[in-house]
Model the fold of this input.
Amino acid sequence: DADAAGAADEDEDEDEDEDEESTTWSQFFENASLLDEIRKDVVRTHPDLTFFLEPMDDLGQRRYAAVERILFVWAKLNKGVRYVQGMNEIVATLYFVLANDENEEWACEAESDTYFLFNALMVEMRDVFVPDLDNADTGIQGRISNMIALLSLHDPEVRCHLDDCGIDGSFYSIRWLTTLLSREFLLPDTIRLWDSMFASTHKDNFL
Done:
């Protein structure tokens, strides 16, 4: 009986070891897949910007790597949202501004500060990236509806023209809303726009 019990314990230990190993490998492949998804977008972010092309000491590549880390860590800590294309544009813009701070001591903290600011932004806009919340007021469809309502109020002629052309608001506004217009302008113009938007008491309406 003792021998049988010992054998059963050994089998149970082996099963636990196999489960742990399987979980470890599963986690490894999940992380690798997520990082690959992020990296594909990051290397296409501002590909002509000198900031990300600086060859000395691989500085440009190290800056891209910082953007990757920010997105990867945030996605791992926010599994209900994970990483969605467009987040890379927001992080890259924030990181560019902070890394170019005239105060070198502050510039050295650009990666951690960018993560903090990006997370604060996502608290406000994360519902835009969650498919289950598409039709909520804070989801992507709800925000598109709000934008169309504002357009109808402030420029009904343009609204009617778009309707006559059969151009649905989602054709252009999804990218505007998910990237905070950062893909529509040159970087200096985006930064100038964000200065005013973040200072506004009604950021959504401003956008």
Q: What stands out?
A: The chain has ten helices and no strands.
